[in-house]
Every structure is written in C-alpha cells, then in structure tokens.
Amino acid sequence: MSERILLGLLAALVVGGAAASTDIDWWENAALYQIYPRSFQDSDGDGVGDLKGITQRLSYLKEIGITATWLSPIFKSPMSDFGYDISDFKEVDEIFGTMADFDAMMAEAKALGLKIILDFVPNHSSDECEWFQKSVNREDGYDDFYVWHDGKLNAETGEREPPSNWVSVFGGSQWTWHETRQQYFLHQFQVKQPDLNFSNPMVREHMLDVLGFWLDRGVDGFRIDAVPHIYEHRNADGSYRDEPLSGWNSDPNSYDYLDHIYTKDQPETVELMYEWRDYLLKYQQEHGGPTRVLLAEAYSPVETLAAYFGNGTRLGTQLPMNFQLMYLSGYSTAREVVGSIDYWMQTMWTQHQTANWVVGNHDTQRVANRMGAHKVDLLNVIVNALPGASVTYYGEEIGMSNVETECTEISCDDRDGERTPMQWAPVSNAGFSTGPSTWLPVSPDFERFNVQTERGVARSSLQVFKGLQQLKQSSAFLSFKKKNGFSYEAITEQVLQIVRTNNLNEEYRILVNMGNGIEIIDGLADKVFEYILVTAYSLHRPGEMIDLSKRLLLMPYEAIVLRWLA
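^ alpha-glucosidase, sequence as received from the core. Prediction below:
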C-alpha cells in the first residue's frame, strides 16, 4: 500500500475517531499561518503579491489543514517599513488592491471555512497620516495625539537636546525635532513612524474604531504588532527619565546600549490589552459568531506574557506569541528543546492552560538557515505535536530557505532574505507571478522546493506538514486540556518524546532525533504501536508495527509518529 493512500486512511481515521471537545475554543488548537502579502501570489503580473492572489490561493490553505491565516499589513502606507507605517488604518493600499478585493477575499475564506486575522499596528502611524499632520498643526483634539516634548537645554552649551537618552529600535535617538511644531516627537522605530500617545483617551477611541471597522468586514481577529512599545513611562511633571546602560553593548546608537525599563512592557500596556479584549467580547455578544482572537507580538519575559493573557479577573490576548523555539539552532539538543518548552509551560500552562508555538516570521531567518535544511521537518513535527496552537510562516511547510538579495529601488532591508516569493511550482517565477520580474528574487532552489513538486513526494516536508495537521484533529490530540493528556521529555540527550493520549483508547508517541547519530531506545512502553507518519530520514514506512517493549532505533534527524489504538 502506498504512503499516499495511508495518509488518506489516516485522515479518515482521525476524523472518524475524533471526539469533539466542548471545552476547547477554535484558537486553542489552531493551525495558524502567516502570509506576507507582497510575496504570496501576484495576480496581475506586476511582480508584487496582492489580495486577489491571496484569494486564489486560499484553497491551498484549506488543503494543508490551516485554521486561520494572519496577513501582514495591507493598509494604505508610504511603505517606508513595508506597511508597518500606516497612513490610513481603514483603507487598503493600492499595491494590494481595493476594498472590493478585500471583501471578495473574505467571502472566499468564509466559504472555505478559513478564518482571517489582520495585522494591527497601534504603536505608531506613518508621518504621512492625517492624524500626524493635524497634530503637527495643533488642531483641536489632535494636539497631544502623538508624544511631543520641548526637550531640555544643555546647561553647558545652552543648546536644546532631546528629552531623554532613549534609543530607537532601528538605532539613533527616539526623538526627532519637528521644525513646524518646534518640538521633539517620539518614534520607537523609524523617524517616519511617530508614536501615538495612548495616554490620550481620544487615541484609544480611534483605535477601537479601527478594530470595529475591520470586525464589521468579517475578520476573525488581530495580531497586535510591537505590543511592549505602546506606552512609555512619563514623570508627573511631563519629563522623561534616561534609561540605564545595559552593560553589554558599547555603541550608544544601538538599541541594545540601554536597558529599556521606561519604554517597554509598562503596566498601562497590560491594561490596554484587557481593554481591547473587552471590546472584542462586547462585539461578539452583540453580533454573535465565533470567538474573535487577539495575538500579541511581544518579545518579553514569559511572566509579562502571562499578564498580557489575563490576571484572573480580566482577560487579555488569547495568544501572546511564544517565540522560544525560534531561538533554537542547528546545534540544539533534545534537552535544550525541552528547556525552551519548559520556559513557556511552567508559567503559561500552569497559570492559564494555554500554549502556542511560533516557527518563524518576516523578521527572522527561515528554519532552513537557522537550524539547517535537514531539521525543517523536525521543528514542524515538534510545534505541531505539542499542545496548543502552531504558527507557521508561509513557505516553512515546504522547507523554503533565505535568499541572497541586493539593494533595489523597491527594497534594501536586511530582512528581505526571508520575505522572498512563495514557491508554488517548477515554472517561471516559481508560479508566483506571470510578470517579467518579481519584487524580490525567487530562490534558485525553487524547482526542488515548491508546492507542486512536494505534493507528489510521499515524505516531502509538505506531506509531513499535512499529516501533522490531520493528527491535530484526533481524539488524543484534542484531549490536551484533560489530566495527563500530554507529556514531553528528552529520553536521551538528543531524542525528544512527546506523548498525546485521550487516556482511553488512543495514544500517540512522537519521537524526534535532533542529533547526527543513531539512537537506540529500549522499553518505552508495553504496547504495540503503528507507524503513522515518518520523515525522509526514516527507514520505516507507515503501516509497519513495532513493539515498544523492545528496542527502537532512530536514524540521525529522524522523526516518527506512532499510534496505539485499543
């Protein structure tokens, strides 16, 4: 029997054996997928991805088992930071299409049973935003819509200086002098991204209005960008304190030069997350439908992320994004993987019984580059075998790697390598565009790593990924909130074992060999298991049986999924 037929049987068994769990909301076990709109599918031949292109490819997301897709910004923007500098929060940028295109995309997603999550960028706007222009001119209601300050006079030189020593994420001062207004404005990121002043209730009202606008158009939630930066600490007299030195970076223009105790993770930011969740809960009560979800992008300590989720009486973001597994390298052992898992689970699972696992994003090198192409499947297996939601960056399911890029008129960003066009087929421009060129170069290995080719290869990364999504709907995988529903451990220095069970009649054991040597494991269980899913490095085939009371051999970089049924 072919592996492809067995994969189909696996899907049937999973669907047939799954016991619906009434205490699990859709986002808790979701397969989330990030689309970088410029690079997913070009529908008009201009070399840039767009909404019509995304609509054309939504059926692919359904095929591979995705629950919801998160779109990086599609809003009107000068594109100084590729959409994270928004000039109109309620309009689609013409690069991506029109509002009619957006509505058509939403209709197709609903028809397919897919959920759409939008990027929400509240910390700042573009300096070309109407709000900023009104604030520059001190128009009524907009005078303190952004963070402005007169600065301070140097006692020795008499010259005006920025209000504090704060350093931008992109380097240099966070404060820039504006000649028209004759004050400094704050920008934690680019100069062209002035920070909004969330101490102003009118700003918060405007942002709630933005959320409501897109909820009315049918979106299922929001990924909140740059959460830790939304508030800054201001003294009672309106001044700002200097931040202390970090002690481990000697460049005063580097973000890491300072310890950001006044510009990150302020208490008011936590309260804002609760305010936004309250708004979504009220919207759901009034309009019905599935739970609307909030994802929080926050590179913060897990204790802070726990506060963003909730405090016991108030609810916040359902999915404070967990980046721990993105810090693994090609040298990481199974014990180090367990350490990364523990960092999250010992706080977030203990306090809130929630988990999510992020594979990559548009700001981080791809797994093939961080860990090696031979470990792409291993990380995909781990994040989908663990309890909770998985977050996959487009192309990781087929093993895409970073591409060497050069500066062009369109882009000159050191993150371009992980933002190159999706590889659909072994044809011109990898099937991404019919145009003569693409906004970033297509990977030279697209003829090997692409959707069409991998659909026809039984143990390709794509087929492994699809099989994992089918398993997430099994009774054992849906029992993760029940007592003893899962466990994980490093059974050797290099072998990770994850167990998923419904404690009744179904159990899965997922074994991952992170090392480059053969591993021999004795006496894992007194049961006979069936090989359900195997990666390319395995010597076994789906359908084979193994007695786990006896010896199990794992090849280097092999991952397997075994199943026991009563």
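Residues 267-287 form the longest helix (21 residues).
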